[in-house]
Amino acid sequence: MEYRFDIANQVLIFVVLSLSLNLLIGYAGQVSLAHAAIAGIGGYTAAKLAIANGMDFVPSLVLATLMAGAAGAFLSVPALRLTVQHLILLTLAAAVVLVTVANSTRDLGGAYGLVGMPVPSIFGKAMAKPSQFFWLLLCVAGICALLYWRLAESPYGRVLRALREDELAARAVGKNVFAYKVQVFTLASAMAGLMGALWAYYLRLASPVQFNVTQSLLLVTMVIFGGMGSLVGPAVGAAIIVISSPILEKNLDIGAEKAALIRLVIYGVALVLLMRLRPEGLIPEHFSFRRALARFGRPLPGAAAAGHQSPPPAAGAAESPAPTGPGQQETGIDIATRTPVVTVEGLRKAFGGIVAVDGVDLVLRERLVTGLVGPNGAGKTTLFNLLTGVIPPDGGTVRLKGRDITGMTPDAIARLGMVRSFQDVRLFLRMTVLENVMLAYSRHPGEHLPLLLGAPLATARAERRAKDLALECLSFVGLVDKAGMLAGELSFGEQKLVAIARLLATGADVLLLDEPISGIDPQWVDRVALVIRALPAQGKTVCVVEHNLYALGQLADHCYFMESGRITAEGSLQELMADPRLIAAYFGA
Amino acid sequence: MHEEKGYWDHFFERRLSRRQLMRLGALGVAGLAAGAYLACRGEEGAPTTGTPAPRAGAVDLSKLNEWLGPGGPQAGQGQTIKLGVILALTGPGSYYGQIMTKGTDLGVEHVRAAGGPNFQVIYKDHKSGDVTAGATAARELVNDGVQIILSSYAAVLGSILPVIQPAKVLVLDGGGGTSQLWKRQDYFWGTRAVIPDDAFNGVVQYVRRKLPNARRVANVGWDVGPANEPVIAYLKQVLAANNMELVADERVQIGTTDYSTTLARVRGTNPDVILTGLWGLDPGYFMKQYVTSGMKAQVIGFEFTPDACQVAGAAYDQYWFAFDYFDIEQPFNPWSKLFIDAFRQKYNQNPDFYAANFYEKVFIVWELVRRVLSRNQPITGENLQNALKQNPTFKSLYGGDPNNVGTITFDLEEHDVDKLQVIGKVSGCKARVVAKMNRERLLQVLD
Amino acid sequence: MDFRGELFPQLFTNGVINGSWYGVLGLGFALILTVTGRFHLAYAVTYTLAAYVAIALSQDVGIPLGVAFFLAVVVASLSGVLMEGVVYGPLAAGGGGLLGIFIASLGLTIVAENLIRLTWGAESASRSLGGFPLRPFTVLGVTFTSLDMAAVFTAWFLVLAVAFFLSYTPWGRIINAVRVNPELARVVGINTERVYWLVFAIGSALAGVFAVYAAIRFAAVPDMGLQQTLIAFVVAFMALGTRPVSVALTGLALGLVESLSGLFLSAQWAPVVVFGVLFVYLALRPVQLRLALRQVQRLVTA
Question: Taking the mean position of all CA atoms in its chain, how far away is CA A325?
Fold first, then answer.
């Protein structure tokens, strides 16, 4: 009987370890090879305090958790700006350093480790036998699992997944991506540290081998095998991998050491096969039994289903609440009477020897659609990047509603009310259309850790409001019926509309649209143009970079002409296109 | 380099069609089958988990009862008793695991043939000194209700003790002994010399005789955590008493193969003698690199195994060693001779002292079982230990003379035994004894 | 205990010896990484396999050392090509991303290491390769062996050979083209898959050469490849540029740093030095540091 409790205990420990790693890898997209080492920080802290300082069980666990969390926070800082490959390397380096330090430091027991931890006891009851340990472990694992579930299946988890999908797009809708990275590292590490400490108490020792790089790789295997990004997948993966060894041992009668090795061979093979055939793991991210059964036996759903549909009647835009349809295009508007919302002065940027933006001055006025035209390579997208903080300028200023926002981060600027769309759309393809737009809801309490955990009712209310807003924005662009589909399943034109809906949902006043019409089917062009034209009526200030002069003519009240990094002309599109030199520059370039 | 954005694309695009699921299933089954096949194929060298059938052979086992007591129900015949064994089955020390397994199996076979109990042996692997594996192995054995464990590597460097002590399981270590740090531990008794400490006096005295100008001694040893210090302290004491000094103490991980930096650092201290606290294959790796290091110091280790010698090749001819040696050429007593003959017959190889220790321990356990049964008590670790304390002397493969079986006696305070040790030299991977000693002093010099 | 006077030249020499072959390992790994983009963790498999094959051929089958060496390198080379052809290639063609390939590579490494343990783990004998006359030389107080000299010469010869190959031969130029712009290369009619095989063959052969050297100099253990692959990672990432000589020099620098740390630290600390350098480099790349610090500032104020 003890034997079964023993296996159960190991399963519980590894389940929590892989779920916490799943938060990092599966949800936030941060591949870490240091997870076992961080669990080791927890294990060693507990061991050292228990053996050397005689600390009691619970206080040592608390300190172990804190130390590991701190280590995770510390590790996250250099990780903030790294690509996935570099992050893998960074965490690998950290893991090797940590294990080697533990291995070589006398006070940490050296290669031998810290042996002889006292029998832990809680509420006066000692836990020497596996059956005694089991109940505590079950409680702790249960709490961790609940916490994990709350984080994962929540607005917070939604932001994490957005982070994984496309960091830049997440920042563009106002998410402070770095804060989330630090938080998720800290939380996942704290959980790992707690389990590491419990594991050390269970074995009554902490040794370097327990927490080395191979163990980290094993944890990564469990997560990916089980299905990273899914809620329970990694738990399943961990359980299978832990249980398989004793099963192999008992049933094949091959001896403990062979069972352990064979299990690893099988899992190595399984990993390779999985990557080839089922990379999403045993349980994929959007798994639901109903859908799985329904889909079983049918051909793969392809882009064909969502491909060439004719656009639905322009419902949303035409029914926009404000009764001012295409009125702005009357030439009677006096541009100068509109208040400047965004003022740019002397903006400059050079990459190496190439000057991309060379002293640009421009003004975006309220409730107008301003066009930005120019030949390819003129620096228009770079200008957008500078305006929204994606790259820092070398000189000049950008003011939003009078406030100097030069050099701020994209998410800060987004929160202040200026957002942009991307040429390549950058939707979160693995999330549903609805989730994509809901993410843009600003100041959602559910996306902030203390409020998520401490104010569940407010979070639920905000979630409802976010959903309502998202549906409203989607109906504005006419795509409400696609709300439940994965964004990646839509056609390009539909995706561009969803991107606009997403921007709307941010509530920002200034929308910078980077080539919203290019690359989509002609039948969608009018649709998108209609939506854009309706934006000023919603109070939005819009700037559009576009090559499609026909469409731009319908949209823009005022245009700037940009070539070789400078603004060389401004006026209505007709005026600009009447200038032969500009025409030559535009087409000849 | 390559674009980062596509990193996660691969993971979520695919949904499983029925065809793919079947393919996956087929491959999975194939993989499992392959794994199982490999497992079974590899079994040839694996230790058995059951008791081997007694073989009728040329070796006459009838003498066993004369020397070691009668068989029969009151001696446990017919009873199945679980015997846990924790060995280095994999890793650089797997030689030990292999030879100890053979000794154990032979002992179990002989005990049954002599009318003793059926020992059901459960083998566990501590992976050549991995404390985690050791503690896990102990825990699994304890969960399984095992009351007596034979272990090695000083109860895997102490990691087993916190597990077996609350469970009151008796542990006998014939591989690493107790070593200095884990003497006087309840439920833990060593049946070999305390290594390397017990050899220090004899070695130093031998060095004074053979290398009278030697003053500077360096130590290269495994890092065994808290066990490092007491050993070094004792070494310094012994050296000081003999007008020598410790000039270097370099620690390496168990299983290290690259000694270049260590050798460079030791070289700078100009030692006359280098002591190596290395076991398993490690002394072989060390010697192989030592002989091309340019140093002229004499290396003296505390282990000699044939496989380490194969690794080192001719380099081992320059190696001296000191430890408790089991003489195969000239058996100590009649029981030793029987053991050697039986071992050779069954395994077609020579036993060494590790095999002898484990064989012997099985008989010690039998004796303890006999005592406990004679008092109508259940076989528990507690009762077994009490039986040991009652009378700590047991028949042994060591000591005695060609007509009388030898004995060993456990020290009730220290929980260890004082074994005869030897100093040996190597030639073409054959060892020869050049001196005999005990833990106090050199007894006899033969060259 | 002041022995630094004698210690420094010896450690320096050790550093040059180790660094030379870190450079070659790094070069093999970097070649594969920069041309194919594969995060080839299973480089460790190639390395370990070569060592064990050499030992098996030489000790069990009785083939003379030179021939065993050659065959082991061939096996190493083939194993690399096989991994690309059977695992990575189909994976990439099936839409596998870079991370998917890394995971598959991880799977291969786990399989190989444990298969080796299963097959050879229970025997501890014969895991070292003999047959090479190891003669020590002492020059100016520094000792090294004939094997070390051969290794250093081989290393630099290989580096220069690869450099020459890449710069001056048609196949080398094709490899460079694929490295710089694979899509364009494909458009121009180059069979990139064949080029990948070639690159894997060369990179794996380089690993094989030094695996056999390690087997002779030290021993073969089942996890020997992983440690060396990690070092190759470090070298490949920290090398400035992709020219073979600069990669090799990075390896040399790393070997020196690692060895010279022995002036102050016991040998066990060497990995801390090597990976600590990598960690600091990754964390503090000037651009990243400035930006990261700004982000931290914003975290607090935003």
Answer: 37
- One-letter amino acid for residue A563 of the chain: E
Tokens describing residue A302? 């392809």
* Structural domains in chain A (count): 2
Write out residues 165-194 of A within 8 Å (CB-CB) of B: 165-166
CATH tag for C4-264 (out of 1.10.3470, 2.30.30, 2.60.40, 2.40.128): 1.10.3470
Asked if pLDDT for residue A325 goes beyond 80, the answer is no
Q: Which residues of A touch C284 (CB under 8 A)?
A: 78
Q: What does the block give as tokens for C229?
A: 């692959």
User: Which tokens is B413 given?
Assistant: 């305070």
**Domains located in chain B, CATH noted:** 63-193+331-416 (3.40.50.2300), 197-323+422-445 (3.40.50.2300)
Residue C71 above 90 pLDDT?
yes
**Predicted local distance difference test score (pLDDT) of residue C198:** 94
Distance from B19 to chain A by nearest Cα, in Å?
8
What are the tokens at B35? 């794994």
B43 neighbors B96 (Cβ within 8 angstroms): no
Contact A445, A451 (CB under 8 A): yes
Kindly provide the ipTM of the predicted complex, given to two decimals: 0.82
Q: What is the DSSP string of B364-401?
A: HHHHHHHHHHHTT----HHHHHHHHHH--EEEEEEEEE
Residue B223's pLDDT band, with cuts at 50, 70 and 90, is confident
Confidence of residue A294 (pLDDT cuts 50, 70, 90): low
User: Are residues A145 and A25 part of one domain?
Assistant: yes
Q: How far apart are CA B319 and CA B136, in angstroms?
A: 36
Q: What is the mean pLDDT of residues B307-324?
A: 88
User: B47: which chain C residues are within 8 Å (Cβ-Cβ)?
Assistant: none
Spatial distance between the Cα atoms of C91 and A276, rounded to a whole number of angstroms: 6
- Domain ranges, residue A519: 315-588
- B24/A277 Cβ within 8 A: yes
Could you say which of A191, A211, A231 is where a domain stops?
A211
Phi, psi of B222 (to 5 degrees): -60, 145
Contact C199, C81 (CB under 8 A): no
Angle of helix A35-52 versus helix A177-203 axis, rounded to 10: 50
How far, CA to CA in Å, does B375 sit from each of B131, B372, B383? 37, 5, 10
A521 found inside a domain: yes
Residues 223-252 of B with CB under 8 A from C: 223, 247-248, 250-252
Peptide bond into B196 cis (omega under 30): yes
The residue out of A161, A185, A211 marking a domain boundary is A211
Residue B237 has pLDDT above 90, yes or no: yes
pLDDT digits (tens, 9 = 90+) for C223-237: 788 888 988 988 888
Tell me the mean pLDDT in the region B122-127.
87
- Domain of residue A356, CATH code: 3.40.50.300
| Distance, CA of B64 to chain centre | 25
**Is residue A244 situated within a structural domain?**
no
CA distance A361 to A284: 50
Question: Three-state DSSP class for A560?
Answer: strand
Query: What residues 109-128 of chain C have any CB closer than 8 A to a CB of chain B?
Result: 115, 117-119, 121-128
What does the pLDDT average to over B254-268? 86
What is the distance between the alpha carbons of residues B64 and B61, in angstroms, rounded to a whole number? 6
Task: Please report whether residue A557 resides in a domain.
Answer: yes
pTM for the whole thing? 0.83
% of chain C with per-residue pLDDT over 90: 30
Cα–Cα distances (Å) from C180 to A59, B334, C80, C189, in that order, read: 56, 78, 22, 15
| pLDDT of amino acid C291 | 60
Mutate to test the interface with A, among B8, B86, B105 (most CBs of A within 10 A): B8
Task: Please report residues of B whose CB lies closer than 8 A to that of A109.
Answer: 225-226
